[in-house]
Amino acid sequence: MKSSVIQHADLGANQAQVNVYIGNRPNYQNLPIIEHIQALNNGDIEAINRECGNGWRKVFNVYAKLIFAWRSADATLNAQLAGAECQSWQAYRDRFLLQGLSQTALIFPSLDINNQSAPVDIGQRHNGNEDVANFHIIMGRTYAKSMLAASTVNAQALNLYWLDQEFAIDSKARTVVCPYFDYRQLSNIKIIRLVELLMSLDKP
């Protein structure tokens, strides 16, 4: 019999404002087995890229491009997140993304004692500050559906409305599903659409 989920495994800030959920983990140092929050330091992203390949480079790059585009369109978010002085998404990626004070997190499936992945529960995640809104971004339609199918808690926490084959939204849970963080799947045009959906969560 499988155990219940132990806890969440995150890269990034504790109680982050921007939470991105991904269905896989980089095979780097202890990341395949962590069950805690681990903030990155300067140089860690490049080290993971070298060790784990171009797929993870794309994930980090698209994440940084998303934050950079989003904060350019949203003055409130720009004021709340560290790194406003960065003049490019590359600078933001290298100096702030997924670091301790970044207010960003990349959240992996939790592992049970049999080392089998179990999706995380969005309903239990918050940033610890009622005055600062948090956001949840699920990377990929397939992973979003697996989160709903694998746990009655997740199913109760999310009520996704599918806008098309790639994007879904649950305004009450402040959650958006988007394509996987890849240059072709989540192109610059689709990043703009994602930003618009995220900003719509703050509209009455």
TrEMBL record:
InterPro entries: DUF6942. It comes from the Bacteria. This is Restriction endonuclease. It comes from Paraglaciecola agarilytica NO2.
